[in-house]
Write a structure and sequence with these properties.
Elements (H helix, E strand, L loop, with lengths): L1 E2 L7 E4 L13 H6 L7 E4 L3 E2 L2 E2 L8 E4 L18 H7 L18 E3 L4 E4 L2 H14 L3 E5 L8 H11 L8 E7 H5 L6 H11 L4 E6 L6 H6 L15 E4 L2 E5 L5 H5 L1 E2 L2 E4 L3 H15 L3 E9 L5 E6 L8 H22 L1 H13 L10 E3 L4 E2 L4 E2 H14 L3 H4 L10 E5 L7 H8 L4 E7 L16 H18 L7 E7 L4 E2 L3 E3 L1
Parallel strand pairs: 9-10, 10-11, 14-24, 21-22, 22-23
Antiparallel strand pairs: 1-18, 2-6, 3-23, 4-5, 7-18, 8-15, 9-12, 11-16, 12-13, 13-15, 16-17, 19-20, 21-25
Length: 499
């Protein structure tokens, strides 16, 4: 997402030690985004190997995590915390023309920053979901990995809205993952959603995406949880009429209470609504469908019927080919539909001027990653961005903070395990990298049962390995920095990149 101007960053830092003292500038979303997450601390990961504290003392830093955003147009209004001269100067610092290349990789949408809201905390995220369900008049679309077993309150809210005689045209569409949505024992996403579909069969649609890379006898023999390693439906987008929430958070209790993620609400954005609604419909077209009928099982009870998409069971190779063709057709169609705005954005990058005309100060470029179907927009975008910010010319084109290396890049992930290509781009870059990940105690697998309980220590080992590789390549301690999120009783799930 591009907004404001090129100095917008995604991690707001209140320095308590001189080493991490960053400078920040003004932008429309930046002014919206600065919020306090009380009690969040980040610890330098070299001092935490396998979840064990080192006796070495390192300074603590306090972070405030917001949605990643890059930059295009000048700020709309000067913020009182910045001098007039500084703000005026920032207006003449457009994104480097080299960033024109990223416009060729995805659809391009526009928004007014006044209609973009940064959501800070899990409770606020739940309130936004609940308010959207209560206010939607025609469409509710929920795409998530799964619906948590304890989230009967969301089902109740959906039922109340569907039962409202003032909203007879309201439709609900749900897309979740097949493996995660059917995992038991006890309540599953399917068992929670079925009564809603049964009672409103013409107004509720539930689809479950099943990876084409796994099936047959292997699927029957593979234990639950392990089968999810073969591929998942991982989109998290929540729509209520023309309002769109993009997030990394699932519809589960911990994401509403104490699991920190990132969330951004686009209000009254019809083209984004159409794009994501069609994306969900397209994926649903080759997914399992939950039927409003039931079938008896061995326990003399009844269970919902899941109808498999054509060819998935009998000919997975042909299914994969057909699904890939469908997804590539969707991507081409939306790329062509946004050609006009893409040209305007490219011209503004080339000329060094902001978008002219309407209040289009925020540009959104949504990307999709479905590697099993040959769709790799996200990896291509990240590769291009990391490459552009690390190339030789970046010192002159992107000098954000007056240092010799040029760009400062902020990356965040709850699980730090870079693909080899990304790791090489970071290590061999001329940019400074500040990386935020979860401390072992803030990892979602911390204290879990079975093999997964070892994952937090494994991720910490990968952190150490990555930093060792960076130091061996000559990257100093102030050039590639890893911090760990730690907040007692909380976990960390936020993913993003920003420069």
């Amino acid at each position: 997402m591009l907004s404001g101007h090129r100095h917008a960053v995604s991690v707001i830092h209140r320095p308590v030690c001189r080493r991490y003292n960053f400078q920040f500038h003004n932008s429309p979303l930046r002014r919206k985004a600065i919020r306090h997450f009380h009690g969040l601390t980040c610890r330098n990961s070299p001092q935490r190997i396998g979840g064990l504290k080192s006796t070495a003392k390192r300074p603590f830093t306090r972070y405030h995590f917001v949605i990643p955003c890059l930059a295009l147009a000048p700020p709309l209004v000067a913020n009182s915390s910045f001098s007039t001269n500084a703000t005026q100067n920032a207006e003449h610092e457009p994104l480097p023309p080299t960033f024109k290349e990223i416009c060729s990789l995805a659809p391009v949408f526009a928004a007014d920053a006044e209609n973009v809201e940064i959501i800070n905390e899990p409770k606020q995220f739940f309130n936004a979901i609940e308010n959207g369900i209560e206010s939607a008049k025609t469409h509710i679309v929920l795409a998530s990995l799964y619906l948590g077993a304890e989230e009967g309150r969301l089902i109740d809210a959906l039922r109340k809205s569907l039962s409202d005689p003032a909203r007879p045209d309201l439709r609900v569409t749900v897309l979740i993952d097949y493996f995660r949505g059917t995992r038991g024992p006890g309540n599953t996403s399917v068992s929670l959603l079925y009564p809603l579909l049964r009672d409103f069969p013409d107004r509720v649609e539930v689809s479950l995406y099943h990876t084409p890379n796994f099936g047959g006898i292997a699927e029957k023999l593979c234990p639950p949880r392990f089968n999810e390693g073969f591929g998942l439906q991982h989109i998290k987008v929540y729509m209520f009429d023309d309002d769109v929430i993009l997030s990394g958070a699932n519809l589960n209790t911990d994401y509403f209470v104490n699991r920190q993620d990132r969330y951004i609400l686009f209000r009254q954005n019809a083209i984004m609504r159409d794009y994501y609604r069609e994306l969900v419909q397209t994926i649903s077209s080759f997914s399992f469908t939950l039927s409003s009928n039931t079938t008896p099982n061995s326990n003399s009870t009844f269970q919902p019927i899941l109808t498999a998409p054509p060819k998935l069971v009998d000919n997975r190779d042909e299914f994969r080919s057909d699904a890939s063709t469908t997804m590539h057709s969707f991507c081409r169609r939306w790329y062509q539909q946004t050609d006009s705005l893409r040209s305007r954005v490219s011209q503004s990058l080339q000329s060094g001027e902001g978008l002219k005309g309407a209040k289009l100060n925020t540009v959104i470029m949504p990307v999709i990653q479905m590697g099993q179907l040959g769709v790799q927009q996200d990896s291509k975008m990240m590769t291009k961005l990391l490459g552009l910010m690390g190339q030789e010319g970046s010192a002159q084109q992107g000098n954000m903070e007056g240092n010799a290396v040029g760009w400062t890049v902020h990356l965040s992930s709850g699980y730090l395990n870079f693909p080899a290509l990304f790791g090489d781009l970071i290590i061999n870059s001329r940019a400074v990298y500040n990386i935020l990940t979860s401390a072992p105690e803030a990892n979602g697998f911390y204290g879990s049962k079975g093999f997964s309980k070892y994952l937090p220590a494994a991720y910490t080992y990968l952190e150490k390995l990555f930093l060792t590789q960076a130091r061996t390549a000559g990257r100093g301690e102030d050039e590639v920095i890893v911090h760990e999120y730690h907040r007692p009783g909380w976990t960390f799930h936020a993913k993003g990149a920003n420069a």
